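Encode chain A's predicted structure.
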Amino acid sequence: MFSFARTSVAVIAAVALSLTGSASAQTSDVNCVYASWASNGDSQNPCQVWATLGSKCGATFTVPALTAGSGAGNGTSPGYPAPSSGGSIPANDCQCNLVAYSLMAACSWCQDGIYSDSWPTVAQWKAGCSNFATTGVSTTVNATGINVPPFAIQAIDGPWWDPTNAQNAQATLGSSGTVTGATPGRNGAGKASMGVVASIIAIAPLYLLS
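Encoded structure for chain A:
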């Protein structure tokens, strides 16, 4: 039985990797000049990944580059506004989660002239959301094919996203391998689909018994 379980894990892992295709079309004209570590295994910067995730809830979500005086930053730097009804960032399941928040903050951080006071706190980001996913993204979102960098699924230690903590997480976990929920996957030869990995996790205890 243990041999079968071990084989099953290997087969499902292979299927997961084969089902994961390129991320769906994203719209972002942001040129990240810093934080190359924040890109995923497909060399997409966090702005592009955020745009892809945001577009999973209907209309194409565009992430524009920040310019002086734009947005509603936490301090003096320009920044992206928090999700709201009728706003440029809709308060939907694609935005009302910690993954989108982390990607937004990293997208801000990677741009020239943007400082750590540019992005809202977690509390500000979730204020306009009726529901907020604190781990992964809502199960209502079809996240298949999105390669989310591991730093974006880490819990936030403090009131807002911290680039140092995120970089440390990315250095440890690598640029690929994502899961739904709080537990990140390890970097491997490929990336795992957010939807399919749940199946692997479900039978992993059988493998550990072998």
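The chain is about 30% helix and 0% strand.
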